[in-house]
Amino acid sequence: MPVPRRRIFLLGSTGSIGTSALDVVRDFASRGESRFDIVGLSAGRNGELLAAQACEFGVGAVALSDTRTTVVAPSGTRVFRGTDATCELLTALARRGDLVLAAMVGAAGIKPVLTAIELGCDIALANKETLVAAGALVMPAAGLAGVRIIPVDSEHNALFQCLKASTSMREVRRVVLTASGGPFRQKSRDEMARATREDALAHPTWRMGPKVTIDSASLMNKALELVEAHWLFGLGADRIEAIIHPQSIVHGFVEYLDGSVLAQLSPPDMRTPIQQAMCDPERFDGPSRKLDFATLRQLDFQPIDHARFPAIGLAHRVIAAGGTAGAAFNAANEVAVQAFLERRIGFLEIAAVVREALDAAEIRPVHSLDDVFAADREARSRACAILGIGLELDPSPQRVRP
Length: 402
Known about the structure:
Structural class: alpha/beta
Radius of gyration: 20 Å
Number of helices: 15
């Protein structure tokens, strides 16, 4: 009996998560297991790679956000262009029960995820900003629509897998996300203050885009993940922690009330959580690296130094504040990271700008997407003002550089 093919929309197909997801699809196909049908692809501005992906996987529709970029799609391919291109693609082609792998970077992923939920699609979520900024909208919308949100980030996917052992979140004492510590794990605060763009982009474990790599170096990535975990699993700040684990083998722990602790282990290869999310609840062989216990000598853990990595404390503050705090937090960070990548500010100034913008933000309840985007715009403008660069850094949540 033929295996039913899962219809998939891949948002952010030209980024690191998107290309890794296509590696998974390619691997299944190489073994004669055509489990996936890639219905649509979307990208920000890499039209050349988007067209090549559409050709290789026989994709009938693509979306490109940047209207200034050329995309020469295969003959017969439907092309959507502009700021709302991804939402238009989904509205035109998505069906209830499809899987949307959301791997767009930044706040630009929020509206497409909400659109997909409204259409009855399950979400494989690799865009943490969606929940950080708009978790108060996304999680209730998913519950109302009866769709699943399966986390793709390695840490949240680890917790997702470990939590399958529970019958209720009331059984959970706490969850712990691990962080590699990035390139500055053993650096002093003075050394971090002198760090260059190149220093911060030299991640020892993961290969990611520039924005996520800088976030990892500052542990802002982990801070955003703590807020994301709050929304995904319905836990307060007092039940969500992070710890340094340089080997990046253990991706998350769940501690239960009886003292049992479950952990998920795998080599640092994003294709593992991507495939898990795409195939859940089933498991199959795949292209990711496998753990070799014969060569595994030790697993190290250490607490996070909040003086060097203040982002973690800011995350707990955001969780406690609720409302539009997450949108302001995420937006200010995007502006600060961009400024660092453009060599406008020093590395430690990233967290300082975010804190100052958060201090000045008016935290309001979230009733609609307009509330989220208003808080986003205000925080971007405020962060630009703090940096003394006016609105040179585009304050629109629909256009996020770099």
